[in-house]
Specification:
With 114 residues, this protein is an alpha+beta fold. The chain is built from seven helices and three strands; from the N terminus they run H-H-E-H-H-E-E-H-H-H.
């Protein structure tokens, strides 16, 4: 039987990405790529997520090297967020989860609403 150490990369990835909103942030930044998103654009796509929570998740993703923050000096001054190369490598993973969810969870969700 496999022990926890054998799944270390999976455990580390889920510790980072398993926090609420984190994968959705990566998803929206991935779908915008190569464009970047302003904080307010990202917040709107996330359904008006609390700004403090979004800031916390973006700082975490930035500290892990998945997201880069760019201060844009054109008027009006603003900040944009985009995926780094490391973050972009998550694109196929997020797309796979999206496809799996569409296939297996969407029908279950609609059946539950009946």
């Amino acid at each position: 039987m496999a022990n926890r150490e054998e799944f270390c990369p999976i455990v580390a990835a889920t510790d980072l990405l398993g926090q609420k909103w984190t994968l959705l942030i990566v998803h929206f930044l991935h779908t915008a790529h190569p464009q970047r998103l302003r904080f307010c654009e990202l917040q709107a796509q996330l359904g008006g997520l609390n700004p403090a929570t979004l800031t916390q998740r973006l700082k975490l993703l930035e500290s892990e090297g998945l997201v880069e923050r760019l201060e844009v000096n054109s008027l009006p001054l603003h900040v944009e967020y985009g995926l780094t190369r490391k973050g972009s490598d998550l694109g196929p993973v997020v797309e796979g989860l999206n496809n799996w969810g569409n296939k297996w969870l969407s029908s279950a969700k609609s059946r539950g609403k009946r």
